Each structure stands twice: as C-alpha cells, then as structure tokens.
C-alpha cells in the first residue's frame, strides 16, 4: 500500500486571477516547489507566477502574441520558457543580472554616468625618447652571420648529420 492511500489531502491554496477569472492552460512548479507558474487560456497570453507558501501572485510575464501551451523553469529559476500554440514559437523570459566590472579589478570604481577626464599637461608624453633611439641604434649595429653553419642546436647538442638538409645560403650573382 502506498502513502497516498493513508493520507488525507487538504486544499492549501487557490490560484486564480480574481479580476478576469482566467482559465489556465498549463502549470509548472519550480524545482524547489517555492513557485508556481501558469499560462493562461484565451486572449491574454500571459504567464502568472505565484509563491506557494502564501499563495500570493508575484509577477505577470507578458510579451507573447499567442496562446502558450506549455511552460517550464530552468533549474536555477533564472528563466521561464513557453511555446506558442499557433506558431510553435518559443518564448523565454529571464532574469537579467547586471555585470559588475568592479569584481574584475579591485581598484576599479563603478560610476553611474560618464565623467569628463582632464588630462594633465605631460601625462601621456613620451619621456627619454633619445635613450630609446640610442638603444635601437645599438641593436641595429649587431652583425648576424647567416652563412656559417652552426655546429650545435639551440640546446647545445651537436647536430645529427642525418637530419640536416644542406642548403647553399650564399647570394647568387645574377
């Protein structure tokens, strides 16, 4: 015998639109049973969401242009999905979580609106430009020999002659 045969059921809540007396197409509890959502039958094309502990209406989701025949929650309660009866179109309502850029960098400060930044006179000027040019000239003076064959590889191991392809690197006279 199952537990249902011994238990007595009592009416806990009634979920209804008291103004329009709408009928419901489909009902779905979320995964914890805290909320109930229902799609309406008829002309309104809305989804109603109630919290189940008090039976109070929390939100009405609007936006579909057709009767919704099925609703479902995702596991974390951040989206409700329904499909339309006439077109088969899928409608998704989701919670939009704002991005917090301050979480990416500890010294980043979020502001409500853009502010004008006044650049200091020499803030982005290049300093020591002469020193940088001198370093570039020193690097350019280094002579690289590309004609002499190396005896070892970059790790210092001698080349194995069976893996070396002999290539003539001398400049050909035209």
Automatic annotation (TrEMBL):
Transmembrane segments: none annotated. It is found in: Nucleus. The keyword Iron-sulfur does not apply. The keyword Signal does not apply. It comes from the Eukaryota. InterPro entries: RBBP5/Swd1 (IPR037850), WD40/YVTN_repeat-like_dom_sf (IPR015943), WD40_repeat_dom_sf (IPR036322). One of its GO terms (cellular component) is Set1C/COMPASS complex. Keywords: Nucleus, Repeat, WD repeat. This is Unnamed protein product.
